[in-house]
Amino acid sequence: MNERQMLLNKIQKYDFAIKELNLYLDTHPDCRRALTLFNKYNGLLKSAEEEFSRRFGPINPTQTNDSQHWSWIDDPWPWERW
Amino acid sequence: MWQYEKKLQYPVNIKNPNPKLAKFIITQLGGADGELAAALRYINQRYAMPYSEVKGILTDIGTEELAHVEIISTIIYQLTRNLSIDEIMKSGFDTYFVDHTTGIYPVGASGVPFTAAYFQCKGDVITDLHEDMAAEQKARTTYDNILRMADDPDVRDPIRFLRQREIVHYQRFGEALRITQDNLNSKNFYACNPAFDANCGKRK
Asked: I need a labelling partner for A31 at 20 to 30 A (CA). Which of A76, B46, B88, B116 fits?
């Protein structure tokens, strides 16, 4: 597994924790423990995504800051094998 | 609005193409109990929901289902790469191939195209949440059946993830139903429809 894939896997792990807490909080909106965990993983996700977009390209178009070439379209797209 | 994220919710990396598996796994894209039907069901039903928890859960599970559409489509795409005509003929993928080549088109396992007739939006909170809970169990059973037939660990791994999500969604919809009933008259939950009738329910 290359470095890009390792960092993407880390992001996917944070995404999973965040999605799970998001759904839980939808039906338990006053659970302080879940809120704390959500904030924790959200912070970890933000910094991991910042590193990913800097090194390997944007995950969403707002992470671009291009002047010569529109990097959003660069391969690989998510359905392609790594 | 929705914003695309250029990543899968769960990784898919299938080394060996296998059109035979693709032929039945595609039912979780375009079949009656598939991910596309799930996404459209929840995203449409949410407008009738009077309670914030239920608006939230339908929006967020509906959004997750769109990510599952992408995972299933990716599995089909990777299972049908670099096929020879001989492999296509022998695997039974020929009936799909003749209409769609190896493009990703939403059909069920028997080739019936996707239709909105697979889901309902009844405009009644209790009715719609019961459909949603049933839908999650039907999708879970379909994944169980896929796991009975698919032997490739590269395929089984993301399928097991998706199966697990059905169980979590079922749990959350059950909580949404409880929250709904907490807002209604416990002597008769069906006395009125809070999505339509004014002043229905305990809270203002």
From this structure: B46
| CA atoms of A13 and A3, how far apart (whole Å) | 15
Distance between CA atoms of B199 and B193, rounded to whole angstroms?
A: 10
Please say whether the beta carbons of B134 and B128 come within 8 A: no
Instruction: Quote the pLDDT of residue B203.
Output: 53
Q: Which segments in chain B show pLDDT lower than 70?
A: 203-204
Residue A41 CB partners (closer than 8 Å, separation 6+): A14, A17, A18, A21
Residue of B nearest to A78 (CA): B7
Number of inter-chain CB pairs under 8 A, A vs B = 68
Q: Is B168 exposed, middle or buried (0-12, 13-18, 19+ CB in 10 A)?
A: middle
In CATH terms, the superfamily for domain B19-182 is: Ferritin, core subunit, four-helix bundle (1.20.1260.10)
Q: Report yes or no for ipTM above 0.95.
A: yes
pTM (2 d.p.): 0.97
